[in-house]
Specification:
Pathway: Pyrimidine metabolism; UMP biosynthesis via salvage pathway; UMP from uracil: step 1/1. By secondary structure, the chain is an alpha/beta fold. The chain contains six helices and 13 strands. The protein has one domain: Rossmann fold. The strands form three sheets. Strands 1, 4, 5, 6, 7, 8, 9, 10 and 11 form a nine-stranded mixed β-sheet that branches. Helix 4 links the parallel strand 9 and strand 10. The structure holds uracil (URA). The site of uracil has 10 residues, from helix 6.
Length: 210
């Protein structure tokens, strides 16, 4: 598993505002979108391209285009939906699939309640959007779901992560090609499974509801 933790003052600044409990949903949503666009730049570093011939006003030359099958972006409902616009802004030709996972607040285990993905993900590069890598339970479920359908490699973009979450994903995805891109690596989890210092419940902060 490859892990990239962002190291850029703009990202740290935006995360600081995001963490602040006084930041209201409209600002939280706008910042999430901006952060994902910045993180997507790193997450797509190995996106597959193929050579294309083009004609500039001056000369014929070679460039690159994103290869087919196109990358598949998979926001994990509900909070991952708040990350979708920021991702497709950077990769507008990507296809989008949906996976709905909900965490049982007692056992902290994920269950699937919605799924809209292509049946065959052979040769697909997949980009999972999930703002909080807490215990790692949801991300492990999502990543293995995609590999079971044939995905070639999976990159997860998360705003915040924990050492426990990274360890869980690493252990559950041995031998798979997995990359995790984090805005920040936080200290850990509290007894209720919240990331510390964290930002609270990302879905609630994005949508202002429970
Ligand atoms: N999910 C969240 O939204 N927040 C956390 O702190 C942990 C999991």
């Amino acid at each position: 598993m490859r892990v990239h933790v962002a190291d850029h003052p703009l990202i740290t600044h935006k995360l600081t505002v995001l963490r602040d409990k006084n930041t209201a949903s409209p600002t939280f949503r706008a910042l999430t979108e901006e952060l994902v666009t910045l993180l997507a730049y790193e997450a797509t570093r190995n996106v597959r391209t193929e050579p294309v011939k083009i004609q500039t006003p001056v000369i014929e030359t070679m460039g690159v285009a994103i290869s087919h099958p196109l990358p598949l972006v998979v926001p994990i409902l509900r909070a991952g939906l708040g990350m979708l616009d920021g991702m497709v802004k950077l990769v507008p030709t990507a296809e989008v699939g949906f996976l709905g996972l909900v965490r049982d607040e007692e056992t902290l285990m994920p269950t699937t309640y919605a799924e809209r993905l292509p049946d065959d993900l052979s040769n697909r590069q997949c980009f999972v959007l999930d703002p909080m890598l807490a215990t790692g339970g949801s991300l492990v479920a999502a990543i293995n779901y995609l590999f079971d359908r044939g995905a070639q490699d999976v990159t997860a973009i998360c705003l915040l992560g924990t050492p426990e979450g990274l360890k869980a994903v690493d252990e559950a995805t041995q031998g798979r090609e997995v990359t995790i891109v984090l805005g920040a690596l936080d200290e850990g989890l509290n007894e209720r499974g919240y990331i510390v210092p964290g930002l609270g419940d990302a879905g609630d902060r994005l949508y202002g509801t429970v």
